[in-house]
Specification:
The protein is an alpha+beta fold. It has 2 domains: 12-78, Alpha-Beta Complex (DNA Primase, Chain A), CATH 3.90.580; 90-128, no CATH class. The protein has helices at 12-25, 71-78; strands spanning 27-31, 35-39, 51-54, 59-62, 67-70, 90-92, 95-99, 112-115, 118-121, 127-128. The strands form 3 sheets. A 5-stranded antiparallel β-sheet has the order 1-2-3-4-5. Helix 1 (12-25) packs parallel to helix 2 (71-78). The longest helix is centred in the first third of the chain and has 14 residues, at 12-25. The radius of gyration is 21 Å and the shape is elongated. Zinc ion binds next to loops. Residues 40, 42-43, 50-51, 62, 64 line the site of zinc ion.
Length: 134
């Protein structure tokens, strides 16, 4: 039951928002301190709620087959577009980097090289890591 699902690389406040978004799409039967009890959308009809959302660990769990789902997986299955999902963020060795394409580029001498007959030019994009720098 306490299977850990990989966190989504976003903060808990965003995960809490996603949980609310998913609750709107699910047939919620009740709510406890830790779990939201839901009629399973994977195995309808589900008279006694067999699916839960963990309210602080942010995953879904289906008691029918013991499978756990991340909020992103649930959103995909339910056709929900999660608010604030960052499609423009690049993971660079565990650091979330967001390239900025808003014309703040500066002229920096590019590095040019040839590998196996193909020329490569490095492009510098100003980035934000959410903490005011890169
Ligand atoms: Zn189920």
């Amino acid at each position: 039951m306490e299977k850990q699902v990989q966190s989504e690389g976003v903060g808990p406040e965003i995960l809490a928002e996603w949980l609310e978004q998913l609750k709107e799409k699910l047939n919620v039967a009740g709510e406890g301190p830790k779990y939201v009890y839901v009629h399973c959308f994977r195995h309808p009809p589900d008279r006694h709620p067999s699916f839960v959302l963990h309210k602080s660990k942010f995953y879904g769990f289906d008691f029918h087959d013991g499978r756990a789902f991340s909020l992103k997986e649930l959103a995909e299955m339910l056709g929900v577009t999660l608010q604030g999902e960052r499609k423009d963020v690049i993971d660079l060795g565990g650091v979330q980097v967001q390239p900025l394409f808003n014309g703040l580029n500066r002229k920096i001498h590019p590095a040019i090289g040839t590998v196996d007959g193909t020329a490569y030019v490095s492009v510098c994009l100003p980035c934000s890591n959410g903490r005011g720098g890169c």
